[in-house]
């Protein structure tokens, strides 16, 4: 009774020892629950239909990321988050901190859009649009050009250090650092006009905060895309963990057709014997091209980012051995079971309805948004003043922002009390996207004040466009009328 029961991990050790496949096949293949590789993954470059789509998507997204800070809209950058002025310029529109509800709305909208895409087509966002994947594939592209194909990179890392190894490694890391530096400069360029930023960088006249954030994102990009790579997707990205809860049997995912591919055969088997085995020749090309190092033949795994590199790799092999394409393909579990896929299902309908409703509400909110913002603060030097004529004066500090793309003349008026009058300026001109501050004085007859505080309204109307109107409430203070 003192002996302990021996334990072993049957899903790794025993399965590897006996080469037991996850399905009915008994040919040699990876175990069904093989843990993901934690070391360096030598990704093999592959071409094909889906990789052309992915490369086009990657280059387009990078062109937008690096190019937008250089494009101007009038006398300002097209996209500029001006933190010092608390103005956020996005194309023709300008937003302010009080518009942050829009940012929250947009983020929720993007989240529901991602959920909808996940229900329909799995992790296609990860494979084709995620910044981690985009920059990782870019780093791998330079790695392939400077160190050679996969087999050469493996030999290079195993070979003794030499001049050839040194210059290739140095060139690769220099290219990675240059890309990372450009990424950091572009990111800061969304907060500081990038033309002035580049000039300040070369003249060594940068603000310490700008230098810090450029350095931070340079290091962040270099480590994430150059060294961590798949570790970010497997262990740091929360989406990789909860996206599986959105999958169902009708979700379009990258899958291996085990019924057609098993049992696996060696590529040299031909003739009558080959008719009794599956189409998979166990070349492991699908594993070599996978950026996360998984074997798609083991079934659905959360590590799969849906980039379809294994589909293009397998199709190239099937074409060479005169077999139908699609042994690995985008499909659903229901199709693999010989059933029909149901596209419209309750989960998808719910996400679609929620997304459509939020889009309609957001568009309505933007259309109803008046391009003027007014902030009113009472003067703190005195509650009110009394004149010899028996009138009470209140002072207000007003901040008016013209959020429109053209200059407007605004008329100012006050209401809420009998005989309430505005002293001084009653019209003012505010240029496009300009913020003006002014001090207003309102007077009222003391006999009309029945209580110490009265609600009043200040109205600002654009004379050239009366639809641009802002009404703000405040209080008029005076002595009690009792």
Any idea what the radius of gyration is? 33 Å
**What is the count of helical runs?**
17
Mean pLDDT: 86
Q: What best-fitting shape do the alpha-carbon axes yield?
A: elongated
Secondary structural class? alpha+beta
Percent of residues in beta strands? 15-25%
Concise structural overview:
This protein is of the alpha+beta class and 482 residues long.
Task: Write up what this structure looks like.
The protein is α+β, with helices and mostly antiparallel strands and 482 residues long. It contains 17 helices and 16 strands. A hairpin with a 2-residue loop joins strand 1 (72-73) and strand 2 (76-77).
Keywords summarizing the entry:
single chain; 482 residues; alpha+beta; five-stranded antiparallel β-sheet
Blueprint (SSEs and pairs):
Elements: H1 10-18, H2 49-67, E1 72-73, E2 76-77, E3 79-82, E4 87-90, E5 93-95, H3 100-121, H4 124-128, H5 131-147, H6 150-158, H7 163-188, H8 194-202, H9 208-228, H10 230-236, H11 239-242, E6 253-256, H12 258-261, H13 271-274, H14 285-288, H15 309-320, E7 328-331, H16 333-336, H17 346-368, E8 372-378, E9 385-386, E10 391-402, E11 408-415, E12 421-423, E13 427-430, E14 435-445, E15 453-462, E16 469-477
Antiparallel strand pairs: 1-2, 3-4, 4-5, 6-7, 8-10, 9-10, 10-14, 11-13, 11-15, 12-14, 15-16
Helix pairs in contact: 2-5, 3-17, 5-7, 5-9, 7-9
């Amino acid at each position: 009774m003192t002996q302990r029961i021996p334990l072993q991990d049957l899903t790794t050790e025993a399965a590897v020892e006996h080469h037991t496949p996850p399905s009915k096949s008994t040919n040699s293949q990876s175990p069904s629950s093989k843990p993901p590789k934690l070391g360096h993954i030598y990704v093999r470059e592959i071409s094909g239909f889906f990789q052309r789509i992915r490369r086009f998507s990657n280059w387009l997204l990078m062109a937008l990321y690096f190019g937008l800070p250089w494009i101007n809209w009038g006398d300002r950058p097209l996209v500029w988050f001006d933190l010092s002025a608390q103005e956020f310029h996005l194309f023709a529109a300008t937003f302010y901190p009080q518009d942050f509800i829009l940012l929250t709305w947009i983020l929720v909208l993007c989240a529901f859009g991602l959920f909808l895409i996940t229900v329909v087509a799995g992790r296609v966002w990860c494979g084709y649009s995620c910044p981690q994947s985009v920059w990782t594939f870019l780093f791998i592209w330079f790695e392939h050009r400077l160190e050679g194909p996969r087999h050469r990179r493996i030999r290079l890392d195993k070979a003794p250090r030499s001049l050839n190894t040194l210059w290739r490694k140095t060139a690769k890391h220099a290219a990675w650092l240059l890309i990372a530096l450009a990424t950091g400069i572009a990111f800061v360029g969304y907060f500081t006009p990038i033309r002035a930023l580049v000039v300040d960088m070369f003249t060594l006249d940068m603000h310490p905060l700008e230098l810090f954030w450029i350095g931070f994102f340079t290091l962040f990009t270099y480590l994430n895309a150059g060294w961590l790579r798949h570790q970010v997707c497997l262990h740091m990205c929360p989406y990789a963990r909860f996206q599986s809860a959105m999958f169902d049997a009708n979700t379009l995912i990258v899958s291996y057709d085990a019924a057609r591919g098993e049992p696996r055969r060696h590529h040299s088997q031909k003739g009558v014997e080959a008719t009794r085995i599956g189409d998979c020749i166990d070349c492991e090309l699908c594993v070599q091209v996978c950026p996360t190092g998984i074997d798609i033949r083991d079934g659905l795994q959360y590590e799969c980012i849906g980039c379809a590199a294994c589909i293009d790799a397998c199709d190239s092999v099937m074409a060479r051995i005169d077999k139908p394409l699609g042994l690995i393909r985008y499909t659903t579990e229901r199709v693999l079971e010989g059933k029909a896929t149901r596209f419209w299902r309750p989960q998808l309908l719910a996400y679609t309805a929620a997304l459509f409703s939020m889009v309609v509400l957001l568009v309505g909110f933007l259309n109803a948004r008046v391009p003027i913002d007014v902030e009113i603060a009472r003067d703190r030097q005195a509650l009110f003043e009394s004149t010899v004529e028996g009138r009470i004066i209140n002072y207000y500090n007003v901040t008016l922002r013209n959020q429109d793309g053209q200059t407007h003349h605004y008329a100012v008026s006050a209401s809420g009390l009998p005989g309430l009058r505005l002293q001084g300026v009653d019209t003012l001109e505010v240029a496009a996207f300009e913020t003006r501050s002014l001090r207003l004085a309102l007077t009222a007859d003391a006999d009309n004040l029945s209580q110490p505080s009265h609600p009043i309204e200040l109205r600002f109307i654009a004379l050239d466009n009366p639809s641009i109107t802002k009404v703000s409430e405040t209080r008029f203070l005076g002595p009690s009328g009792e």
